[in-house]
Specification:
The complex is a heterotrimer of chains A (333), B (338) and C (308).
Chain A: E1 3-16, E2 19-32, E3 36-40, H1 47-54, E4 62-71, E5 74-75, H2 81-87, E6 92-95, H3 99-102, H4 109-121, H5 125-138, H6 144-148, H7 157-169, E7 175-179, H8 187-204, E8 207-212, H9 215-221, E9 224-229, E10 232-238, H10 239-244, H11 249-257, H12 296-300, E11 305-307, E12 314-316, H13 323-332
Parallel strand pairs in A: 3-8, 3-9, 6-7, 7-8
Antiparallel strand pairs in A: 1-2, 1-4, 4-5, 9-10, 10-12, 11-12
Helix pairs in contact in A: 4-5, 5-7, 7-8
Chain B: H1 2-9, E1 15-27, E2 39-51, E3 55-59, H2 66-73, E4 81-86, E5 89-90, H3 96-102, E6 106-109, H4 123-133, H5 139-152, H6 169-181, E7 187-191, H7 199-216, E8 219-224, H8 227-233, E9 236-241, E10 244-250, H9 251-256, H10 261-269, H11 311-315, E11 320-324, E12 327-330
Parallel strand pairs in B: 3-8, 3-9, 6-7, 7-8
Antiparallel strand pairs in B: 1-2, 1-4, 4-5, 9-10, 10-12, 11-12
Helix pairs in contact in B: 4-5, 4-6, 5-6, 6-7
Chain C: H1 3-8, H2 15-35, H3 37-54, H4 56-59, H5 97-133, H6 135-149, H7 153-163, H8 168-195, H9 198-206, H10 210-246, H11 258-265, H12 274-301
The chains are: A alpha/beta (333), B alpha/beta (338), C mainly alpha (308).
Chain lengths: 333, 338, 308
Amino acid sequence: MNKLLEVNQLKTYFFTDNGTIPSVDGVSFSIDKGQTTAIVGESGCGKSVTSYSIMRLVDSPGKIVNGEVQFEGKDLTKVTEKEMRTVRGNEISMIFQEPLTSLNPVIKIGNQLDEILILHQKMSRIKAKKQSIAMLQKVGIPRGEQIYRSYPHELSGGMRQRVMIAMALSCNPKLLIADEPTTALDVTIQAQILKLMKKLTEDYQTSILLITHDLGVVAEIADRVIVMYSGQVVEEADVFTLFANPKHPYTRGLLASTLQLDEYKGNLDTIQGNVPSPSNKPTGCYFHPRCPVAKDICRKEMPQLKNLEQTNNRVRCWLFEDEKEGLLHAENA
Amino acid sequence: MQKTLKSNIEDDNTQLLYLEDVKKYFDVSDRIFSRKKEYLKAVDGISLKVNKGETLGIVGESGCGKSTLGNLIMGLLKPTEGKILLEGTDLTTLNAKHLKKKRSEFQMIFQDPFSSLNPRMRVFDIIAEPLITHKIVKGKELEQRVLNLMEDVGLDVSYSDRFPHEFSGGQRQRIGIARALALKPKLIVCDEPISALDVSIQSQILNLLSNLQRKYQLTYIFIAHGLPAVKHISNRIAVMYLGSIVELTTKDQLFRNPMHPYTRGLLSSIPILDPTLRGNKQNNLIEGDIPSPVNPPSGCKFHNRCPFATDKCKEEIPSFTEREPGHFVSCHYSIFDL
Amino acid sequence: MEANNAELSPYHVDKKVKKSMKNNKYRTYIKKLIKSKTGIVGFVLVLSICFIAMLAPLLAPYDPYKINAAQMLIPPVWIDGGTSNHILGTDNLGRDILSRLIYGSRISIIVGILSVVVAGFIGVVFGLIAGYYGGFIDTVVMRLVDSFLSVPTILFCLVFLTVLNPGLFTLIFVIGVTSWVMYARLVRGETLSIREREYVKAARTIGVSNLKIITRHIFPNVISSVIVISTLSVAASIITESSLSFLGLGIQPPTISWGIMLSEGREYIATSWWLSTFPGIAITLTVLGIIFLGEWLRDVLDPRSRGM
């Protein structure tokens, strides 16, 4: 048993005045110790809500209606709020897309770092300060002493994200949830942050759950990839298989339409149509209106998430119900 | 290089837009406590020409001044210095009335499809607004024009009386494109038109833009923060850093033979969709942060992040020189010497 | 582009459905009202006060001005000495308190609404201009606002009212002129942020005139917050009217307003508490009702909360 986190049939619904929105609709996956797992998908696919559900940070009108989140022998959906608070920031911590809004603008960086250590590790103020400055140096911030005394707005976006990472790792969590950690950053800074995250998780043996829409980022640092579409997992595979041999038509479309530096002739590959709104899902397979190889059955029935022969990899598509036939079909298409 | 550009200007009727040493400084001095004037040099002396029917890509990271440049061309900001000539007419000296008339010739597509459409206006009114403002058509004809525009950008005409919030991001961007097309402009400035869209929608919009360009002989200035987005659509690409162009050349030359160290760093920061190649290019990464444009580094503005910087780079501003035909670089050294 | 149909299909509806969608919008407003308990309370309170004001001659059991020396200071019906002829008792001149309350609601409603219209108009115009043009104009308007804010409203009213002839319309004008700053600040702030939106930029690149940009693109997007603030300020105006009338500077007797009733009852507060208590309760209920209604409006008018 090397599993750190196991999510089972998680359903998080939003109960709005205009009806129920099933943002996360029966998601299951697990994360091994020391592994970086990425959840990829477009806006509204439920990837962020999944991560908030794990942290139990879903606000009303959202509610976890079903499923369990096993973490270190506890079901996080069942533990008390008080227990949950000792988990958050201590055993599971989180970094966000926009580091400026997730740092308190009126408190110095150093005090914000100290606070976590004092709260969770019960450190003394002096010891916390030492540890905080050490953390700042570890995340590649030179002149840690100076940054320790700065306010968030005095730092650049990349620096702030480094501070966020320092905060998130300060209690040596077992799991780090990174929600679009580089989306707001410039490419040259993104590359630096990704490199840093890779190095730190190796040093600290922290597992990462990376939430992103960018397959390029996934290719850079993930070990396992979960592709979500419209609140469901449609494909799960190790990173090498996923990029070399994507199965689900959505994954293939996503890979094809990600802009790259390769030469293109004529029009770019696209996935036709729009991302469906979560309150108005199609019948059958949610992807069928946009799928280039949709069959009759796809319009009527939802396929199951099935393990592919002799692997841990899973896919939710009628093409692979009968694997051999499916592959043939896919090649013809 | 200004000589090269200028020598072309008189007899060259393939040229649509010409920028001559355009500068935009924002006054950021502390008015109460300090008498020292401080300026944010958003655009610091840019000369460019854009040919008819081409797409010029402008790439750079945040703070490089690419959006300010777009706003200057659109006349949304007044340049501190320099000229902006559209087919020989200097836009910066036009009075309000003439500028309004001229506006039908250059239009803009915006970044954020959620804030670029007035939430209280119906799609029809949004697309019709330019036509009504310039009193081009009325009544039945107006209706027909708007519906044609909707068809052009791939929107179902039966949605003309919907409000923007009923559409997805990609569809909203199509509405914005229809609005920009309404006046049959010659030039369209696209300010990061795909960076707020989902991956699967980005390429749809890029395809739409290239199809429209072919259909209506449009000229684009395509502003983006990433090279992959401009690569597909551009004929020439300008790379900006802290208010200046550091490299300008054709698309092919830029990717085959990037000469400025910043361009090279930018290229190698782009994640590749192949996990087996991971870590191959770690050494080319650009270190450090983008400096603030209020106090840019002396000499070559890139010197503090450049892996090859010498003392000369710290002191002297490099000139923008033509290294091979049509390939301009602003660096003291040839990349082969480094 | 074959993709179009598929792309648009989730939204595709025919004319009939479209109509029902419009109805749906109102239905969601009502649904929200029913869901919010304070919303219902506010709605019912405000509606009934408006009805009372409109139908005052039909509802009032007595002539509110009629003095009856034989029946002075009769307590309410549930107190010893009370009579069912005068449910809420009579005042020092023997006038029926219930009838006076009913008639008094008219002044409160008129002053509340009209002064808000005056204040809203001045404030919105100044706010739009200051926010949109910025620079020198903005500085001038905002300094003016600051100077208004630095003096208490009630003091302003006192000065104005002692100089001008007291009366209903003077009162409305004075309350309006002194409370426009709130709107100006709000509208200026919103305009500042909306001015930076890309759709305003887009309108400028099209060549739309400044006046049209303000009226078509900015005003419709600030109006919902103005409406919400207005409800709160109707409540504030009613209180101001009462206070000024209480001080003898607002509505002049024999015209009836709740403020006047309060002030007339003041002398008798120790012996005949009902003279000032009932108008006090009326003011409180009205103001509460309007505030509740305002809260509901804020929910409903927030575009984020509005579904398709």
